[in-house]
Structure formats: C-alpha cells, structure tokens
C-alpha cells in the first residue's frame, strides 16, 4: 500500500513538474509578445498619431517634411516589432496569441505601406486613420482577453 501511494505521489509530482516549464514558457511567450506590440504601439502613438493630431504633418507646419519622415521611420520600426510578434504566434497553442496573431499580418502590411509613403515624404491621411482604427481594434481585443497592451518606451534609432 505504501509503495502505491508513493508511486501516486511521485507520478503526481512529475506531472506537475512536467507542466510547470510549459506554463512558465507560456507566460514568458505572452510577455515577449506584449512587449513587441507595446513597443510598436509606443512608436505609433508617440511619433505618428500624436504629431498627426497636433497638425504637424499639414502643409505649412514647421518642420513638416521632417515630422513626416520621422513618422515613417517610427512606423517601419513598429512594423518590425509586429513582424516579431507574428513570428511568435506561428507555432503557439495559446488561444490569446492565436486570436491576436490572426489580426497581425494585415496590420503589419498596413504599417509597412503607410511607413513607405511617409518615409518618401508623402502624407497618407486615410492610411493613418485606418492604422489608428486597426490599432484600437487590437488594443480593445487584447484588453477584452485580459492582456492589455501598454506602450513600451524604447529608443528608436534616428528619432
């Protein structure tokens, strides 16, 4: 009887120990994922959306071309961060990462498209507003899943 209970205890502890690294990997995976999206959100919000709302991209604004090019660089950085997040979702079993990850490829393409226009000095107001809507959709979905995306201040080379 003692050997059966000892075997049960051993089996139970091995089961718990076996799932713990995977559970920790899931937490780390989510944290890295949210970091990448937080960095992308920070770049978009700080260098693109706020200046846009302050009319810094409008004709006649002081340093208009510089602000537009900086916004393009920030969006290129954001696209890089989103692509890193996309790679993380390819082989995951986590339902949250799968759900958010399904929206990211189109979002990444939009970021790259608007970034290329801005880096070339072309202001794409409709593209920018569409990016803001897509960003809000991602933020709201993550929040509803209990995983809010917070801006992560990271230095962006050249800005």
Radius of gyration: 21 Å
Q: Helical content, roughly?
A: over 70%
Average pLDDT confidence is: 83
Order of helices and strands: HHHHH
Q: Beta fraction of the residues? A: under 5%
Q: How many individual helices?
A: 5
Task: Supply the helix-strand structural class.
Answer: mainly alpha
Distance between the termini: 70 Å
Largest sheet: none
Number of domains: 1
* Uncertain residue ranges: 1-21
Identify the overall geometry: elongated
What is the tally of beta strands? 0
Keywords: Signal
Give a written overview of the molecule.
With 159 residues, the protein is mainly alpha-helical. The protein has one domain. Helix 1 runs antiparallel to helix 2. The chain is elongated, with a radius of gyration of 21 Å. The relative contact order is 0.15. The N terminus is likely disordered. Keywords: Signal.
């Amino acid at each position: 009887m003692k050997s059966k209970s000892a075997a049960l205890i051993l089996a139970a502890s091995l089961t718990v120990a076996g799932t713990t690294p995977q559970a920790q990997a899931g937490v780390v995976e989510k944290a890295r994922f949210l970091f990448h999206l937080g960095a992308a959100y920070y770049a978009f919000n700080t260098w693109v959306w706020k200046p846009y709302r302050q009319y810094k991209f409008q004709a006649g604004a002081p340093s208009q071309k510089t602000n537009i090019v900086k916004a393009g660089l920030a969006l290129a950085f954001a696209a890089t961060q989103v692509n890193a997040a996309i790679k993380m979702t390819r082989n995951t079993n986590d339902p949250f990462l799968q759900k958010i990850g399904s929206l990211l490829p189109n979002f990444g393409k939009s970021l790259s498209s608007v970034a290329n226009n801005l880096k070339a000095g072309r202001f794409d107001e409709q593209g920018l507003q569409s990016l803001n809507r897509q960003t809000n959709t991602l933020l709201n979905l993550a929040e509803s899943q209990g995983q809010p995306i917070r801006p992560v201040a990271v230095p962006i080379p050249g800005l």
